[in-house]
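User: Hi! Is it possible to get a structure for several chains at once, not just one? Here's what I have:
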Amino acid sequence: MAILVDKNTRLLVQGITGKAGGFHARSCMEYGTNVVAGVTPARGGELFDDKIPVFDTVFEARQQTGCNATMIFVPAEFAADSIMEAVDSCIELIICITEGIPVVDMMRVKAGMAGSNSRLIGPNCPGIITPGQCKIGIMPGYIHKPGKVGVVSRSGTLTYEAVWQLSSRGHGQSTCVGIGGDPINGTSHLDAVKMFNADPDTEAMILIGEIGGTAEEEAAAWLAANCKKPVAAFIAGATAPPGRRMGHAGAIVSGGMGTAAGKIEALQAAGIEVAETPADMADALLRRMARG
Amino acid sequence: MNIHEYQAKELLDKFGVTNTPGGVASTPEEAERVARSLGTNNLVVKAQIHAGGRGKGTFTNGFKGGVHLCKTANQVRDITEQMLGHTLVTHQTGPEGRVVRKVLVSKSVEIARELYIAVLIDRAISAPVIVASTEGGVDIETVAAHTPEKIIHMPVNPLYGLLPYQTRKLAKLLGMASGEMRLACKLFASLYKLFIRSDCSMVEVNPLVVTKGGEILALDAKFNFDDNALFRHPEIRDYRDLEEEDPREVEASKSNLSYIGLDGNIACLVNGAGLAMATMDIIKHHGGEPANFLDVGGGATEQQVTEAFKILISDKRVKAILVNIFGGIMKCDIIAQGIINAVKAVQLPVPLVVRLEGTNVEAGRKLLNDSGLPLLAATDIADAAQKVVAAAQAA
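Assistant: Yes, the chains can be modeled jointly so their relative placement is included. Here is the combined structure:
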């Protein structure tokens, strides 16, 4: 059933008493996500919206509620610590929404997580949603529709764009994963497409990438060798000037590496249908599916 | 964020990365004093601007060269006089050039060998990597392309940091003699410390030189910083030189907007970095040229949207504006109200195409309709791009 999250997910929200954390915890609950706990240091014992228990530490939340996923809304300067706190408590799935975490902090998190059983999604991402079952993140729930297309993306609003195009053409989504726009993230395009490939409920995929790094190329090479499901892709940033960081910390072409042209070439070589414009993402997948 | 050469020198000094003695000056007299304090007849004066190609540049007053070797302090003063307050044009500045406000006066050294060393983040392994070569003083990408075997890659475990044995190995790979090891290892360790403690995304020393006197010096250093970490580095934020930046970007940064100025004539206001890039791409796809990248983000306020809009309107090159919003956290009515406020304050001088979708879209569309603003509504991103390109071409 889909990947990573479903109706059995028991969600903790780190930073639940903050403005953004509270707002989005509520919107996840309204969507039907089972939010079981919150954590805000020194606010333990309170109830969020009169029903969700708040703990001082993730350790206590895990022990007392059996939460198995966490959504992090902690300010950038403390977010790395919050991720490691969740890892220490063996939370299986850690979704870090926070934007602006220093790269040096993320390098240490990544090295510190080696050998743990936790999976990190993000940071600087919209989160993850299995339509009709579980929404963990900041995406507008109503644009999604349960279905068979897996979506993985470095960009939030571009994911909404793709989902909207799919839903309005009658195609639902199995799971949509926002992996985030930072140069160092927990889950890569490659990790996500491997999971989608293994998921019997996912019959096709849309992969959305952008300039910078080589994550899209790695996913393309793996897909070419291992995946029979139809895949479409879009790469943002063909017109971005080299050497400038385009909003996302990871979206930068440096030393001729990470260009849109190079990524598109790699994807096409892997038999992936590449959308010409962001308006063409769902149609590109439909073309690819029609080709068989 | 870019910094000046004299600021780079300050950082090197602070972390004990040996480099050439010298000092910065804002007046000819000050430059002369710095020159005298160096106690040598081998001096060099360098104009401080954020652009390469200074040595071969020309000042608009006719004076040639932004880098000069001098033999006396008086000569340093005279050369500085010709530079300060004047505009230096290099192949990187564009024809408008940059005004020189400071010069760096330093000792010039006799070079025996030129090497290369850089520390940067390797995204593929989520760790820092040291890149070094015995071929310094030239373009490293050329070296990598033609003689890849001369490029040394040394990954660093971010939890351990650069270990002492790694500095020794690096010294050997760079051809250091036993007698040069101590100085070289100290420099490598200091450089790595500077990289991590200052939250750099890249430090590049090119050339790293061994002098005829046996010193090992970072002769020229370029820095890139992680913008995400500037909150914990007020000392680096202070290095920012607003005179060197695109005035549109300076204005945008005052309102915490993610804006990058480009050369086209179609302004865009978008939420989300990916969608903002994709919007530029689709404008180009339909034959237009974007004037900017602008991501108002998910948490923008009405006030920020208004400020963003004012920046777009004030750009004289702009012939049409495209607003492309897919509301997630960002609510469409906030965007609509921001636009209405901005247009009330400043007359709308060019056609405006608006595409709204997502959270509170009905409320947003209603606000815009009721405002009576002369805007073109678009149904989707392709329609929006076609309409704005047509509007810009008709203008």
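Chain A touches chain B through 64 residues (CB under 8 Å). Chain A has a mean pLDDT of 95.

User: Great, thank you!
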